[in-house]
Amino acid sequence: MSKTVAIIGGGIAGLETSIQLEKLGYDVTLYEKDKALGGHAGKWDRLFPNRRHATEVIDSLTSRIKDKVQINLAATVNQIKRENGSFLVEANGKSQKADAIVLTTGFELFPANKKEEYGYGIFENVITSAELESMFSSNGKPLMTNGNNPAKVAFIHCVGSRDEKVNRPYCSKVCCVTAVKQAIEVKEAIPTSDVYCFYMDLRMFGPGYEDLYKEAQVKGVNFIRGRLSETSEMEGGRVLIKAEDTLSSKPLKMTVDMVVLMVGMSPLPSTEKLLKDLEITPNNDGFVQVKDYHLEPTHTEADGVFVAGACTGPNNITDSVNAAHTAALEVHKYLTSE
Amino acid sequence: MVNFGYTTLPTHIHDMDKADLGLADSISFEDSSFNLCIACGSCTSTCTAGAFTNFSFRQMCHQIKRGENSQAIAESEKCMLCGKCTLACPRNVNTRNIIRLVRKANQTI
Questions:
Q1: What is the nearest CA distance from B57 to chain A, expressed in angstroms?
Q2: What is the pLDDT of residue A338?
Q3: pLDDT higher than threshold 60 for residue A154
Q4: Domain-by-domain residue ranges, chain B?
Q5: Which residue among A158, A162, A244 sits closest to B45, beta carbon to beta carbon?
Q6: Residues of A with CB below 8 A from B91's CB?
Q7: B44 min Cα distance to partner chain A (Å)
């Protein structure tokens, strides 16, 4: 009888782990709490650094899943219990047995309303980076609430990242390059617009990222080195923003038509409950603690429980795919060594 | 000596071989949050005094770290101790305490 692996979360990491484990001959039960597969990437319009459509990546993954993967959509896993050396996974009132678990639960976007001084949820033209992606998907360009094209757009980096005041002291890693990508896209969609990025440091760590930054400079995106302190609303839904222009050591104010908050990656609260069930302690940032950061990045301290993707901390798609491959191989080694 | 009418300009560079970093050392010894600044400028942009004068807490800290102590001490006098910067700082630098330590150093010099 072939063995069953339960994969919790149907984003990039969960899909890739399912594909690999199925290829290795296992039965896979994939749980996804949403109605569709793809996770956050599935809701994105285009991806950095080459700006291909996110659907291309998601469709490629889902097309490679064959019939030995049982896909459960709108299935929230409420409990995982150990029973005679295997696991019982309970979702929507139904329990299923699994011989190993892979946690690919992902992250949540930082709830921007926690930075009240930035005005999200209070001022109408303050939006998040995720909402800008939806605008690109549906209109091909950003629109103010009154239906006009914004003439001036400000991107605010590090919202819910590198900020001890909201208990998110870590860098979310992918928002810098996302802001640069989106800034270029705004410039292309509305060529007459002025686009500003307010940053502290620009962390262009991946291949092609620095090129994207240069492309933004060439296309006329302005970079101001300073962190937003507060916003206020002006006539016509415009937004007044304040920061220090640290390179000239002067406070700066600017009225813009739209503010885009680059929200970081936060630990998903519902993962916490599963970690308790499995007796795994979260790391300092609240993400899943891996067994050895350098050498066993997809193991957890719990026997038979593996992990991949952004539930271990901020990740890009490549990181998630790599971790998924590793996790699948580690699951295989675990299930064949018994 | 013949006067050719030439002179040498005083140096404008940070000469870190000669910089007096005593104040920086004593402040970071008494309050290590002084070391945590990432120069984001949240303190300056939220500063009540900074909106009307050229006071910049971020710049003052930087002056101390480069040994420009007399400028920094003069800067510290502009602070009204309202504490808005303490609320804004993403690294939890104890900004008001740093001001207090700079002023205290001025009294003991």
A1: 10
A2: 60
A3: yes
A4: 22-108
A5: A244
A6: 164
A7: 6
Give residue-wise pLDDT tens across range B6-30. Answer: 888 887 889 899 999 999 999 999 9
Question: What's the rounded mean pLDDT across residues A186-204?
Answer: 98
Q: Is the pLDDT of residue B3 over 90?
A: no
Residue positions counted in chain B? 109
Per residue in A115-125, pLDDT (tens digit) is: 999 999 999 99
What the block records as the tokens of B50 is 């900074």
Residues of B with Cβ-Cβ distance to A202 under 8 angstroms: none
Instruction: Report the gap between the CA of A227 and the closest CA in chain B (Å).
Output: 5
Where does residue B108 rank: exposed (0-12), middle (13-18), buried (19+ CB within 10 A)?
Answer: exposed
Task: Taking residues B76-83, report their average pLDDT.
Answer: 94
Q: Where are the beta strands (DSSP E) in chain A?
A: 4-8, 27-31, 69-72, 77-83, 86-91, 94-98, 100-103, 107-109, 126-128, 152-159, 194-199, 222-225, 228-233, 239-245, 250-256, 258-263, 265-267, 305-307
Label residues A137-149 b or e (16+ Cβ within 10 Å = b): eeeebbbbeeeeb
Helix (H, G, I), strand (E, B) or coil at A169: coil
* List of chain A residues whose C-beta atoms are within 8 Å of the C-beta of residue B59: 249
Tell me the chain B residues in contact with residue A170 when contact means C-beta distances shorter than 8 Å: none
Q: Which residue, among A206, A174, A4, A6, has the nearest Cα to A105 in the 3D structure?
A: A6
Nearest-CA neighbor of B69 among B9, B8, B18? B18
The class level of CATH for A112-264 reads alpha beta
What pTM was estimated for this model as a whole?
A: 0.94
Query: Looking at chain B, which residue has its C-alpha nearest residue A167?
Result: B90
- The residue ranges of every structural domain in chain A are 4-106+268-336, 112-264
Q: What is the CATH number of domain A4-106+268-336?
A: 3.50.50.60
| The total number of residues written for chain A in this structure | 338
Could you give the 3-state DSSP secondary structure of residue A74?
coil
